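BUG: 3D viewer hangs when loading the predicted structure for this chain

Environment: internal workstation, default settings.
Expected: structure renders.
Actual: progress bar stalls at 90%.

Input used:
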Amino acid sequence: MQVTGEKAALRAEARDAISKLIYGYAEALDEGDLERVARYFAHAVIRSDGGEFRGIDEVRAMYRRFTTFYDAQGRKCSPDVPGSNPRTRHVTTNLMIDLAEPLRSARARCYFTVFQVVPGAIELQPIVRGAYRDAFECVNGNWRFSERVMITDGVGNVTHHLNEIPF
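Structure tokens produced before the viewer hung:
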């Protein structure tokens, strides 16, 4: 079915907004910005092998608990150290977005591969792969996550990435 005119523009805007949420999450996590990561899920639940986490406080705590952070010299540190991050790149691919009419909700699915390099510890390598199954809602014209299911289906050396291994 071909959609034209104003409806096509609204659908394109919705897809763009949802894509920015998905890619923005990956960027925030790679930059070590746990506040921003948590805000993406302010009205959502994350389900993974590590458990179920709802809202800003639980999501922030989950990432603080599981994710290893490094300072500028590549030493393990607290996520509170300015400029610290997990030394990762989340690559998100094969994004498929299914919009529900009347453009108030959507579902998306995609693959992810996480690469990591820690100077003096590990060379650049893929460390985990899987899929995201996401749900979104549009509230007052703004799209937001309502659910993320993280499915891990391949694990490499995550000893430099995770403080605890939930799978």
